[in-house]
Amino acid sequence: MADDLRRRILNINRPESDEALNGHAVDSEHVPLSPVTENASHSPDSFGIKFSVGSKVSDDNLHARVGPNPPSHSGVLSVKPGNYDMVRDLQIQTLTAKAETLKAEYLECVDKELDTLINKFVSEAVPKSELAVHHVAYTGTASPGMRRGDKSGELLRKEFVARNSYLTDLFEIPHINTIQSIFIAVLIIFAANTIISDIFDHGTIGVDYKVWLHAFAQLPSVVMFWLAMQASTLFVVYWGITFWAKNRQKSEQIDLFDKFWLLIYTGYLLIFLVVPAWFIMHFELPPGSAGIVVGEQVRMLMKTHAFVREKIPDVIKLTVAQHPDPAPDFHRYLYFQYIPTLVYRDNYPRIKAVRWNLVLKNFAQFLGGVLYCNYVYIRFCIPAFRNFNREHVSVGVFLKAIFDAILPGSLHFMVIFYAFLHAWMNAFGEMLRFADRLFYRDWWNSTTFSNYYRTWNIVVHDWLYSYVYVDIVNLLGQSYRTTAMLVTFLLSAVVHEYLMCCLLRMFYPVIFVLFAVFGVWMVFVTKTKSSHAWNVVMWLSIFLGQGVLMTLYGSEYYARLNCPPTTDNFWDKVIPRSWMCYVWHPTLNYTTEA
């Protein structure tokens, strides 16, 4: 293409002198005329005449162009001497327009050739593991920092690469950084609104601090319980796998001793699953304190399984090779407990030094996100839902509540994403010199729900992919990929619902239905969609989903505060009170107590 463009450029006939234009003998009265274009985007055809520089002009075309009296010379127009400069300028404009057109085509060709050369250079200079597409899929497509094994058909394996979070790079662009400034300005306005309301309504500030006291009540007991969970995760798990590694037989065969320790490990996971839930329910922890316990419980369970799942094959190989010390290193396990990833490796990429100013900045942003959610909850959620069961909830009232909850619910969604998946993760990554900061991708550009689910939270997705999806496919076979995907979705939905059950101390499977039913359905509906309209559909679904979650969980939470229980047994935790209770207790001030 480049050679063709060069030839076309060189073949443009430019008049070398006033005596020779387009192969015609020229005097002061005769100059050949070509169609004139005002810019490079116009073609000669747009003027209704099809001839170019250096071509003969037909009588018919000239008749259409200049009128009923054609020129006496075929292909040559008579020009008075005074008009020669004007015609010459028209010739120059025509040549310039054609040259500009060729220039644009040539530059496009050069850009394509440069892209090809650059891609070839990078692919040869950088290891393939660092060029993995930033894309994770339950179906086994390319994954962020993942690569295929050496065997044909082998599933992807997580590879850690030093890289920034998406928003870290995007905030280097002033236009994108302005969005962050807007959110900070809104946070300041929320804070000022709260202070002014407290002063004029109550004569003081900090009236709503009781919300914090209620949400994080029994915090000392929570801290002690967290220390006990962390100690069991560190020492019980490590001691157990070390004892098993040093005492198993030197063979690849799984014997009774291996099965016995597998049974003990399974029992440990069940105990670790039940005891924190019992602690939350027995001591009736409020949402904030319960969130600390259940969130850390799930994190430690996932870390524990990742460590054990990765080290079992290594221990078997070392014992078969009669290695003198097949036990894993404790310091590697300890480091893994606190870095922002759920996939275990013996080594991770690290930065050279900790930038403490960046650590403080990220923790400050996390604290700002928590305050943001607090202000949204106080100003939008409590006034909307504390009176929700005062009267019968009709369909119209319910729909209005959903749309009223879309704004605060969506703000919660975006702020929690930024506070936890960006600020909190980057703070711990920086403190521990953990270099792979790809905790999420550009999920906001997704046109399919499958892409949204796998890019919204890469930290959790990598664990689900590595230790659920891959293991199911390896166990059942490649033909069961869809089954593995559905099981993975189901497990994720169950864990999300478990979190909500512990946070609110009630069973109300709203998030399970939205995740496991509507979410899975939308994955198949949008599987092949790529147009911008489907990105709009995705955002509409997110906004409506947040409105539904906020409305149903908010109304049920306050119904359990306002309404007496219908039964005095287990079924009271399962049957929603908001469906049948319209009793209001005006003596309680839920603005400060809930």
Can you put this structure into words, describing what you see?
This protein is mostly helical. The chain has a domain of 124 residues. It is built from 18 helices and 6 strands. The chain has a two-stranded antiparallel ribbon. A two-stranded antiparallel sheet has the order 3-4. Strands 5-6 form a two-stranded antiparallel ribbon. Helix 5 crosses helix 11. The chain is globular, with a radius of gyration of 35 Å.
User: How much strand?
Assistant: under 5%
The helix-strand sequence is HEEEHEHEEHHHHHHHHHHHHHHH
Low-confidence stretches: 12-79, 125-144, 147-152, 583-594
**Helix run count:** 18
Helix/strand-derived class? mainly alpha
**Total count of strands:** 6
Strand order of the largest sheet: 1-2
pLDDT averaged over residues: 77
- Overall geometry: globular
Q: Kindly report how far apart the N and C termini lie.
A: 71 Å
Helix fraction by DSSP (H/I, runs of at least 4)? 55-70%
The main β sheet shows up as:
2 strands, antiparallel
Q: Rg, please?
A: 35 Å
Features:
594 residues, mainly alpha, two-stranded antiparallel ribbon, two-stranded antiparallel sheet, 6 strands, 2% strand, globular, disordered C terminus
Chart the SSEs and their pairings.
Blueprint: H1 2-10, E1 20-21, E2 24-25, E3 30-31, H2 59-66, E4 77-78, H3 84-125, E5 146-148, E6 156-158, H4 166-170, H5 174-202, H6 209-215, H7 219-247, H8 256-282, H9 287-320, H10 330-338, H11 356-385, H12 395-431, H13 449-456, H14 458-476, H15 481-504, H16 510-525, H17 532-562, H18 590-593
Antiparallel strand pairs: 1-2, 3-4, 5-6
Helix pairs in contact: 1-3, 5-11, 7-8, 7-9, 8-9, 9-15, 11-12, 12-17, 14-15, 15-16
